[in-house]
């Protein structure tokens, strides 16, 4: 069991964006994403969910995003993260997969929109890192140390 979990973690780690230096800091994951409340609330498939199913779905979307666009399909782990029983999660999971809100990709849960949002957030993050690197690591006149004396007495 531990070996399976270890392999799932390794695969999830490979799917995540690689560690990248940005301003001298190592960035290993993205911590936020754009949320389109209207898209979520106006979706006919989401509207058919019970309150509890919607809450579980929303939490799993966060796990998928934080997992790099996919999350290991381990019912015990997900149930603990959601604070519900494993049997309750398995009921919700079956409903979400049946309604094509979640996709089972091997040993991972995925959501097409979260994959797109994660890739978009990663691209924006890398673009910002590149802009910061070029701004602060070049010897431009605007980066030069000031050497003028002050007129203050």
> Rounded to an integer, what's the Rg over CA atoms?
21 Å
Query: What structural category arises from helix and sheet content?
Result: mainly alpha
Helix content: 55-70%
- Whole-number mean pLDDT: 79
Distance between the termini: 73 Å
* Percent of residues in beta strands: 5-15%
Question: What is the topology, as strand order, of the major beta sheet?
Answer: 3-5-4
User: What gross morphology would you assign?
Assistant: elongated
Contiguous helical run count: 7
Number of DSSP-assigned strands: 5
Q: What string, H for helix and E for strand, traces the elements in order?
A: HEEHHHEHHEEH
Q: Stretches where pLDDT falls below 50 for ≥5 residues?
A: 14-21, 24-28
- The biggest beta sheet, please? 3 strands, antiparallel
What secondary-structure arrangement, pairings included, does this model have?
Blueprint (H helix, E strand, L loop, with lengths): L1 H14 L4 E3 L2 E3 L9 H6 L1 H4 L3 H16 L3 E3 L2 H8 L3 H13 L4 E3 L2 E3 L1 H26 L16
Antiparallel strand pairs: 1-2, 3-5, 4-5
What's the short version?
This protein is mainly α. 57% of the residues lie in helices and 10% in strands.
Question: How would you characterize this protein structure?
Answer:
The protein is mainly alpha-helical and 153 residues long. The protein is built from seven helices and five strands; from the N terminus they run H-E-E-H-H-H-E-H-H-E-E-H. The protein has a three-stranded antiparallel sheet with strand order 3-5-4. A two-stranded antiparallel ribbon has the order 1-2. A hairpin with a 2-residue loop joins strand 1 and strand 2 (25-27). The model is unreliable at 14-21 and 24-28 (pLDDT under 50).
């Amino acid at each position: 069991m531990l070996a399976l979990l270890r392999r799932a973690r390794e695969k999830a780690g490979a799917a995540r964006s690689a560690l990248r230096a940005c301003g001298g800091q190592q960035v290993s994951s993205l911590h936020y994403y754009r949320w389109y409340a209207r898209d979520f609330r106006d979706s006919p498939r989401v509207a058919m969910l019970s309150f509890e199913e919607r809450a579980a779905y929303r939490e799993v979307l966060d796990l998928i995003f934080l997992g790099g666009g996919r999350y290991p399909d381990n019912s015990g782990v997900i149930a603990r993260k959601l604070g519900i029983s494993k049997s309750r999660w398995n009921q919700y999971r079956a409903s979400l997969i049946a309604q094509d809100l979640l996709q089972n990709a091997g040993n991972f849960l995925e959501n097409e929109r979260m994959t797109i949002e994660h890739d978009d957030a990663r691209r924006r993050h890398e673009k910002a890192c590149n802009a910061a690197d070029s701004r602060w690591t070049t010897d431009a006149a605007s980066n030069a140390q000031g050497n003028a004396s002050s007129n203050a007495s």
